Amino acid sequence: MTTATTTTTATDAASGSVLLTLMKLRTFIALFAVIAFFSIFAPNFLSTANLILMSKHVALNAFLAMGMTFVIITGGIDLSVGSIVGLCGMVAGGLILNGIDLQFGYTIYFNVVEVCLITLAVGIVIGAVNGLLITKLNVAPFIATLGTLYVARGFALLSSGGQTFPNLVGKPELSTTGFAFLGSGRLLGLPVSIWILIVVALAAAYLARYTPIGRHIFAVGGNERAARMSGIRVNRVKMFVYMFSGFCAAIVGLVISSELMASHPATGNSFELNAIAAAVLGGTSMSGGRGTIGGTIIGAFVIGILSDGLVMMGISSFWQMVIKGIVIIVAVVVDQAQRRLQQQVTLMQLAKKG
């Protein structure tokens, strides 16, 4: 009887391990599935021009998803990233077109590099505000970032009275030209935004895996109380992840405004949903403590290809929202199932050794 029980336990453990491996590879499986599907049913899906266009769309989502990944790993959420995109785009557009009016007939204009640095600083500051609300005032992340979502969007609309900042070509005499390169330029055949994504992704992956702050991010998400008792400065870790999320959102605001050569206050509306979907689909656990930058990038590819493929097939935007919602729900359900299965497999392996 004991031998039969042991054999059954070993078989169950092996089966569970196989299923667990498939769950861990779900993002790769989903990526291959959407590529295969749209290659068959969407015309010109694999054309060079379309692949380059999709890569630019994926890059925008990937930036936001990387910041969201760190936030979710700590057990938080950032609903404000879409509004930060819109506000930062308006900041860049306003600086290029109008500069900063100091009254008395004086106006300061900045070159493109300075405009980009100021815009990135704005994104980081908004992220810091989120972090302070959460760490110092003990506001729940959902509520804190929901509030800054409305505040940032409101300031974006107020900055131009709800109007667009158009024609951001700048003026040579003011050294404000060259903004288009960020969104439309290419290096070695690839869009500049893709190169920026590669640099930021490598830096984020290195930070997560090889630095103390990266280990602290996972520790806080795994067990905040234990992390605090072990000497980790939890509040500083949370501040960092929200500031990084704001930084990534500012990059997206710059790239979109540069690509369109215009800034609109409604830019980035609902972008946070795609970012959350990409992070969760890439294996980031909504309960915190688990996630990878690599998985998030693949998740961003799945969401981006899904969005562009549905457009190419002529699917209604309303149905696209339904499908994305289903993707998020399925990703969370699979993640919870993976956690339960992981615990079961671990117990069965311990029973087998015993």
From TrEMBL:
Pfam families: BPD_transp_2 (PF02653). InterPro entries: ABC_transp_permease. GO terms for cellular component: plasma membrane. Keywords: Cell inner membrane, Cell membrane, Hydrolase, Membrane, Plasmid, Transmembrane, Transmembrane helix, Transport. It is a multi-pass membrane protein. It is found in: Cell membrane. Its EC number is 3.6.3.17. It comes from the Bacteria. GO terms for molecular function: hydrolase activity; transmembrane transporter activity. The chain crosses the membrane at residues 27-46, 58-77, 83-100, 112-133, 179-208, 239-256, 293-311. It is an enzyme of class 3 (hydrolase). The keyword Acetylation does not apply. The keyword Hydrolase applies. PANTHER family: ABC TRANSPORTER PERMEASE PROTEIN YPHD-RELATED (PTHR32196:SF21), ABC TRANSPORTER PERMEASE PROTEIN YPHD-RELATED-RELATED (PTHR32196). This is Monosaccharide-transporting ATPase.
